[in-house]
Structure formats: C-alpha cells, structure tokens
Amino acid sequence: MIGPSVTRGPAAALAPQLAQAAERLRAAGVASPRADAEQLAAFALGISRSRLVGVDELPAQAAAHLDELVGRRARREPLQHLTGLAGFRYLDLAVGPGVFIPRPETESVVGWAIAALTSPPALTSPSVPSLEPRGPVCVDLCAGSGAITLSLAGEVPGARVHAVEVDPAALDWLRRNVAASRLPVTVHEADVTAAPTASLARLTGSVDLIVSNPPYLPDADRDEVEPEVGEHDPPQALWGGADGLDVVRAVVALAARLLRPGGLLVVEHADGHGAAAPGLLRADGRWVDVADHPDLAGRDRFVSGRRQAGGGERATAEEG
Ligand SMILES: C[S@@+](CC[C@H](N)C(=O)[O-])C[C@H]1O[C@@H](n2cnc3c(N)ncnc32)[C@H](O)[C@@H]1O
User: Fold this and answer.
1) Position 195 in a domain
2) Which residue is closest in CA terms to ligand 1's atom 26?
3) What's the count of helices (H) and strands (E) in the chain, helices before strands?
C-alpha cells in the first residue's frame, strides 16, 4: 500500500542542527535559546531569519561557522556582538565590544518622547510654545551607539539632533552609525557630569527635547547582572554610583541649562527608581508636569518633565 506522501518541508532540513544548537544554549543558561539558535543559523548562512524556512541544506562551511558561533554564545557573548547588529525601532545599528547594546525598553522611552514632541501641547501646559516650522532641536545625553539619536533624527520631521557621549570606544560606534545613516546629527565628545563644552554651551536655552538613557544601575548590583551585561557591556554604560543616580542627577542639571522654557526632558531609569527619579526633578524646582512612566512590562522605567517657563534662573546661575 502506498501511504500518504509526506512532504519534507524546507525548514525540516535544519531542524536537527537548530534543535542541537538550542539545546547547547539552553544548557548554558541563555534566556532565549531557540530564537538565538535561529538568528545564528541565519547569520552563518548570510540570510535573514525569516528566510530560514526556505533553506534545504546547511553547507559544511556554514555548519562549521554555526558551531563556532553557538560555542561563543554558549560562553555568553551577546548575540549582537556575534552578528554585529542590534535592531532598535526602525534601525539596524552596528554594535560590538566597547558600546552598550540598545535595549527594547528604551524603544518605548523614545516612542513616548517622539509622541509627546509631535503631538499638540496639552491644554494643562499653556507654557509650552509650539514647535518652530524648521523642526525641533533634540539632544541625546549619553548616546552610546546612537539608538536614541538616530531614532529622533529619522522619525521626527526636520529634527536637528545632537548626540553627547564621553567614552572614546562608544564614540567610534556612534560616529560609524551616524555616518551610515546620513541623517543630520552633530556628535559632541563631552562628559555630562562636567561643565559643558563650548559647542554644547552654545545650545543653552534653545533645546526642545532632551532624551537620555544614562548609566543607572546601583553599584551594589554588580554581582547580579547576567554575564552578557557584566562581562560585555562597558562598565561606564552601566554603573551609576551608590544609589545609581549619580549620572541621572548630572543629566537633570545639564538639561535644565540646555532646554528652552517648556522644553521636554525624558530620562530612563532603573525599575527601582520610580519614586526617586521624579523626586529629583521635583526637588530641583525647575520642572513642571513631572511624571513617571512604566515600560511595556509594567515596570517603572522613565521620568518626564518640562523646563519651567520663568523661575529657576537662580539655580541655573549657581551652576555657572
Ligand atoms: C546605558 S548606555 C545608553 C546608550 C544609548 N543611549 C542607548 O540607549 O542604547 C549609557 C551611555 O552613557 C555613556 N556615559 C556614561 N557616563 C557618561 C558621562 N558622564 N557623559 C557622557 N556619556 C556618558 C556611556 O559611555 C554609555 O554609552
């Protein structure tokens, strides 16, 4: 008797290798073993993950490459370091050793900031002037690979974006991503905890939006982070002092100086800072409409506030 014909789907050709790779990654404690195995197989084959379904064989060279990649991932090298790319909103950013890998939670921080910038000011905020027709001036403090910078530059019509970063290795990645994007971005090599450089000082009182994802983990968490983070993200991108808020405080002070009256500040923070971060802005006295916001997982994730129109000059002058 002739049984029903079984069509061997193209994806079945890779099934054993993918299952084996996923098992190695699972055993090594990788959080998303199957997804990572598929990403690495696609990378080894030089195709996108969605095209794996059309593959009917794994050539020996690609199989050897996949084996090497899975071994490195099992030793907890970040997936993005192996592929050299990190997806962020509409971007594929070049990343590798020396730069922080952009995180999904920051995508919603940027999305919220863009929506707030491009929607009409709320009636409860009469102090907020409308955007000038030439487009807003935006600043990304602690820019890393340029994830926030390039999202703003690509998604906000007419935006003129300034990226501020202090770490030379991160600056190399930032400049590379900015150059590849051909978007209008000015890169500033500057320390947000120090007095503004001459080029940054020129923006005083003129900025419409500042977004920042600074280092914000409390130093005490050093033993708790995953190997991908603790051994591969640059320490300067992670650690924010005893309470995690050292750089956040500097960002708030610099933002108060750079923003125009009514300008908007949006700062990502640790999930334990849902009260402390807005508390910093309220205690500072130069902010209105201060609010904290959750990420998609419902964890406290970022604070927003508008630079007070009028008032606050005393505090600005005190900063020099
Ligand atoms: C958490 S990472 C965020 C990078 C990027 N904005 C993102 O969301 O993917 C923080 C970045 O701040 C930079 N940074 C740390 N301290 C800084 C400082 N004092 N001044 C400027 N940049 C700083 C680090 O080098 C790192 O690139």
Assistant:
1) yes
2) 237
3) 13, 9
